[in-house]
Amino acid sequence: MNGANDPDDPLRLLRGSEVSAVSFVRDHVELHFDGPVLRSLSDPVGVYGGRAWRFPAPGSPDLMRSYIGETVDGCELDPERMLALHFGEHRFVIPLDDETSGGPESAHLIGVDDHGRTSVLGGMWIW
Predict the structure, then answer these.
(1) Among residues 53, 6, 51, which one has the least CA distance to residue 29?
(2) Which of 5, 70, 84, 127 could bridge across to 76 with cysteines, CB 3.0–4.6 Å?
(3) Distance between CA 86 and CA 29 in Å, rounded?
(4) Which domain of life is it from (predicted)?
């Protein structure tokens, strides 16, 4: 685990974690990890089971729900381009570039507090 607002590797929180929920909120999508939450404020894209998807295109929510139960085995972060989670052959990408973000923030990662509850006390990172 890393400390709150560790700028070196906040995605370390997610490595080895299983997706417990995919939530579709009014203007964003969230991946839940039984504690930490990764919020995509820009429209995510990815590949699941060899099928490319782009949210909110038809069929993308069904493919995105398929990530539930998958475990993160790798992460990539290019603060000017994208944040990506790898799940074996599957990939979930949050675009971070200015053209796709639609605003000053593209993604949030919220950690867990000392009791394991989702809380900014466990760190919050914004891209």
Answers:
(1) 53
(2) 84
(3) 17
(4) Bacteria
The pair of three-digit structure tokens given for residue 54, joined into one six-digit string: 């782009």
Q: What is d(CA 87, CA 126) in angstroms, rounded to the nearest whole number?
A: 22
From CA 3, how far away is CA 20, in angstroms rounded?
23
H-helix or E-strand spanning residue 89 = none
Q: Is the distance from CB of 70 to CB of 60 less than 8 angstroms?
A: no
pLDDT digits over 72-97, tens only? 999 999 999 999 999 999 999 999 99
Does residue 58 have a cis bond before it (omega within 30 degrees)? no
Compute, in degrees rounded to 10, the torsion defined by CA atoms 79, 80, 82, 83: 0
Low-confidence ranges of the chain (pLDDT < 50): 1-6
Rounded Cα distance between 99 and 108, Å, is: 18
Tokens linked to 94: 């949050």
Closest-CA residue to 61 (of 19, 22, 106): 22
Burial class of residue 106, CB neighbours in 10 A (0-12, 13-18, 19+): buried
